[in-house]
Amino acid sequence: MTADNVIASSAKQARQLTEAEIAEIEHEKELYPDNRAVGLEALKIVQKHQGWVSDESLLAIARYLDLPVADLEGVATFFNLVYRQPVGKKVILFCNSVSCWIMGCEGIRSHIKETLGVDFGQTTSDDQFTFIPVPCLGDCDRAPVMMVGEDLHRNLTPEKIDEIVAQYRGK
Amino acid sequence: MVDNPLTKNIDMSRPPLDIAAYEANDGYQSVRKIAQGLGSADVLQLVKDSGLKGRGGAGFPTGLKWSFVPQGPDSPAQKYLVVNADEMEPGTFKDRLLMEGDPHLLLEGMIIAAYTIGASKAYIFLRGEYTRSVETLSHAIKEAYSKGYIGKNILNTGFDLDIILHTSAGRYICGEETALLNALEGKRANPRAKPPFPQVSGLWGKPTIVNNVETICNLPGILTYGVDWYHGLSRGKDHGTKLFGVSGKVKNPGCWEMPLGLPIRELLEDRAGGMRDGLSLRAFLPGGGSTDFMLPEHLDLKLDYDEIASVGSRLATGTMIILDDKTCPVGMVGNLMTFFAHESCGFCTPCRDGLPWVDAIFRELEEGRGQEKDLAILQEHVSYMGPGRTFCALAPGATAPLGSGLKYFADDFKAHIDKKCCPYKH
Amino acid sequence: MAKVVIDGKEYEVNPDNNLLQECLSLGMDLPYFCWHPCMGSVGACRQCAVKQYRNADDKNGMLVMACMTPAADGSIISIKDEQARDMRERVIESLMISHPHDCPVCEEGGECHLQDMTMMSGHNYRRYDKKKVTHRNQYLGPFINHEMNRCIACYRCVRYYDDYAGGTDLSAQASHHHVYFGRQEDGVLESEFSGNLVEVCPTGVFTDKSFSEHYSRKWDLQTAPSVCVGCSVGCNTTPGERYGTLRRITNRYNSEVNGYFLCDRGRFGFDYINSDERIQAPITRSESGDIEISVDDAAALIEDLKGGAAIGIGSPRASNEANFALRNLVGAENFYCGIADDEHAVNRLILELAQDEAFHTPSVRDIEKADAVLIIGEDVTNTAPRISLALRQSAHNKALSLASANNIPQWQDAAVRELAQHERSPISILSGYATRLDDVASELHIDSYAGQAELAQAVAAELGGQVDAPSGLSSDQHALARTIADHLRSAEQPLIVSGSSSGQLCLVQAAANVARALQQKSGSPTSLCLVTPEVNSIGLEMLTAAENTLGAALEKMTSGAARRAIVLENDLYRRAATQTVDQALSNLEQLVVIDQMPTATSAKATHVLPSTGFSEQESTLINYEGRAQLSFQVHKCATAGLPAWRWLSPGETDVNGVINRCSEEVKGFEKLDDMLPHGNQFVAGMKVPRQSHRYSGRTAMIANINVHEPKQPQDTESPLAFSMEGMPATRDCSILGAAWSPGWNSNQAISKFQDEVNGDLKQGHTGSLLLERNQQGGYLGLSMADQDSGEFSLIRAYQIFGSDELSAKATPIRQRLTDPYVSLAPVDADRLGVRQGDTVSINGNGQLATVCVRSHIKPGTTALYAGDNHLNLQDLPASVILQKSTESIGGNGIGGLIVSDLYEESY
Ligand SMILES: Cc1cc2nc3c(=O)[nH]c(=O)nc-3n(C[C@H](O)[C@H](O)[C@H](O)COP(=O)(O)O)c2cc1C
Ligand code: SF4
Ligand code: FES
What we know:
The complex is a heterotrimer of chains A (171), B (426) and C (907). By secondary structure, chain A is α+β, with helices and mostly antiparallel strands. Chain A is built from eight helices and five strands.
């Protein structure tokens, strides 16, 4: 009988949240009346710092905020923008909703597939990009559009895609 | 006086006006009126008189909605205002313009709304992908705090208001006002049963008003320039101006502030420049992905809530999606069905399990494996997922393009089955 | 009452309910999934669609969900409407698009609500020919199987597990067509009430794992109405047997006791009945070994011990009949209480209080209605688990009253919870350690027994009770007492809970004082719920003279005053100090032990007689309320076992005779025989079959041995038959084992037998309350236990899985057992130099326990769990010395322990 057996009914251990993460979570606590609401904020905060929400991060948040980890998982898996799997350095959010579809986003998607070698849900082998579809980005008058990280790119053409990829690869 | 109160400060080629410039152009006048003694009951009456209807999609009279919030000493002390800035309806790109173009207008509107209903805390529920809006709004909120328009004891009125910017983790259903409240509370964003309505038991069980960004942006004008001015803005039965957008293969897609009651043709031809060369108009969705198709024959109708409803569609968000004659209508509806199936929250049966079936049928149609019998199943799903049958309005929204598409594009559906492929691709 | 028109006919309904509930109460068939009688409506499944018309002129009407629509006066609805029927058929069709259609191999098959509703809705042809969604299943521990592909996403599981039962490790995950119900990762379901998922889930996602391992269809199980023997609540159950082995236990509805839910001890703790270790035959021990004896030899043996020739020791886990028969045999003056002396003393006080007019003993249903609760030193989750589930519901009453004040119907479950947020009816807990109800506690005070009693006494004083206010309390403690007193004072239905598991008189005395003070304030009796640890503790106490303690019996043996003794279904080594029992037994000439399983006591017997288990005999048992309940025999005993009363009353064969005699001869038992079924409960005088109409393979059951079908056993005693012959318990029958009604093969059929949803069963069968209140007592002084010189004052900790002697022998439960442990405060652990999981020796006498460091325990106290008979609590003084030990206990460890306050140094 070791101490580990006692504590660890879970195979995974919570990781230690960083000071920066904790500071931001503490800030959110002031804005919401209970920890449950902060839970979703904490998922976003941790993702911002870590790129995604690992099991270890999920456990860490649950512990820090004293929330049931099962509930937190239920929330994390509900939302499109919480990643429970590792993603590349930049996430490409590719709009494939109706206006972009009319304006030919399928062709752009094929082009990305060819250039980067990934389709929706996949990460490039160099871990640079993860390619994800996203509902309408609200920029339909300049369709097709996509976001790379926090930046919006509009009126996409295959040539523009090449430029954008080169630009980020260069960075 | 101005005739474009929503966009008068907007010029997307430069950053939005800072607070001083905003103030200089009649900004925050409404808050000053409140400071000078305009009571909350007076504001409520003004908003009722203005005839303002919600711009989030349902078109519910704003003043009436506010009047359901319990007031008086027995009502809960804490009330909330929530601004619905989740804009995820396919083909909708109007709230983004307001938030990136003139964030102070939204804040001013929020102060009015919060003051009227007695909310000391307001959340802006902003879709997470709107990173530019995060910047403009955060900056504007800071400015407004520093000038005392928000915070404690606003302009010595004794009224306190905190505005908190919340970015969503992304789901279309979060735009549904009760699902939005669950998301704000950090829960899975399933909608809630109504009744009880949020006005009575909303955010954390407290009385809450949820309004769309554009709705709120109408308020400063109404208070500053008056109800008569507001009534004079429109060209039809409904009052005020509205943001109208056009996307698809038109010459000049975009989003403009226009009087309500404007004929559709004027918007399409004068503003959007008509169809691109070589293309003609096949049909259009008048107000985002959850509205019924309309046809070229409807172009002379006015952009009014009732007129659009008279042909079985909805004005909804006022952002049109144009279908041209070289684009496959079946593909377009199929694209929307994929969207709705994916964005279903999974709470109620018809939506959760009906939409994937519909979507699967569209995939087969597109791949040339469509079957005649499946068309009947699609048709059945139109009523099966209709209003009242599902828990919220998401699935009924999906049935709008589906039902009208089946009706207007029957030949195209048939051609996909007969030719065993998409005729527009081959 | 309101009037509504349903399909053209007018009915009276309760406007406070929804239309679905009222339609079901009226006996109509209207399909549903997400609604549950105990959990209200959320409107998720959309299965209960009906047409509602605005007025008599409205010909079109509108589809509404019956479960989400109030049964308002003047409503006009149609269930039969074409559109409504079509909608219901479509809903089933789409629920089934990804359902695996694996009914033949599904454990739910034949009692599946989804199957029933599918038939009821008319969906019978699969049109969906696309891909199904599939899921991965999880390991959920020894009790529950997980087969997510069968899920229809009604959300009942999480609503039950989390919202109703307070679980935290099951959640709804993902979204749209991929919604998933499970844990965050594989692992044991932590709730003590997880087994109810099996019955709450309308299909086969959550099934009974131990049943799966020796599965049988529902209709092939032989069943009878039974009573759980796991604790003093006496939940009603339906055990099912096939091929001579007991296969499973399901809930049997009783409006006053368990309602729809059991705890996991009750549901999964029975398979010792099938154990090879059962005592197989009557034996006599001699030098040369065990010699099997005949029933006649045994009768002669017993005959010899009659009328004062021996003393008898009764048992709190034996039936009234067995205890009565023993008492009858040896004479009341020679009949002793087989309960530890300290607990016995508390039980006597409880019995006395049960006759005091100042109090009222609440049923489980009453407990759910309490609006302020004070729990004093009884960890009910582990000693009377079903009560803990009821107490949790009481916390929800505040939400319900808030809802009413805001015109939100109480059945609008999600809306009620949303409105109330964290508002709860107060539950104040005084305890030696953190309990599983702490998450709904408004006040929590962790202290030694004396500390708890004094705080409770302070509450009584605050309430104006004529008690000596304790002197040594801090100002915080006074403030706490005041808060608790305020809660209780302002409640309409306050409830005080305590019990005898601690063996501490002072706790129950203080509880009675608080309750009396409240009663004197309000003028009406206060609900006082005092639980005893075992299924028939109260019955045994009622049959025993107060002074006939176990200590007195052992003393008689030791002194030689008694040379012969009969021990009934009891292991004395769990009841008195080892040395004392050793001495007493070694002095006996003859020791007859009657039991089901061998024990340390039976090992010392000169004669051992096998008795039948709970499912093998008809018996009566008396629960914590003094409620006598009748439990029928389900199946034949596979050993040579006889009901203990039969060994003890040779010549007697009819249990009804024993019951009649007991009710005639023993004071307090007058109403015992009221429960026996009467002639008018049978259709045309026919018996009620234990086997269903569809019971299959009877003629072939032993065909591998003999092709001649043996004659079915005759049941001459009960109204039930060991066969399919007779009239099944249809409506209006109070001897209802497995509920079945045409079209309703699942447990949901129960609504057909209730006078209204959640109401009494038609003709009722809630048992008879034996105790009458005709005494007036006064305030009690606190009898504090002496503290001796040990370092840690001892608090007894109990475990739902392990503290009950018999259920701890069941296979699934054994997988959840932990080692004995001592809970320590971090400072104490530091001082002893021990860490989580280390071993300590107790009082240096070789007894070992594992260290469990907890953040909520008072320094200087230790909560000790004795394991499944690893430690004998009676060997330990009131305080103990602990020392780090290098020895290992070598059991399951304490990794499976589920407590909220496990101390973790690293965080
Ligand atoms: C599926 C669904 C999505 C919605 N999305 C939005 C949205 O993104 N923004 C919005 O303002 N309203 C949205 N609505 C409408 C809101 O529920 C609500 O009616 C609106 O925010 C009220 O504001 P208003 O009265 O100012 O129009 C949505 C409704 C549904 C059913
Ligand atoms: S949602 Fe209603 S809608 Fe469904 S049964 Fe469940 S019970 Fe009714
Ligand atoms: S459809 Fe792509 S931005 Fe709107």
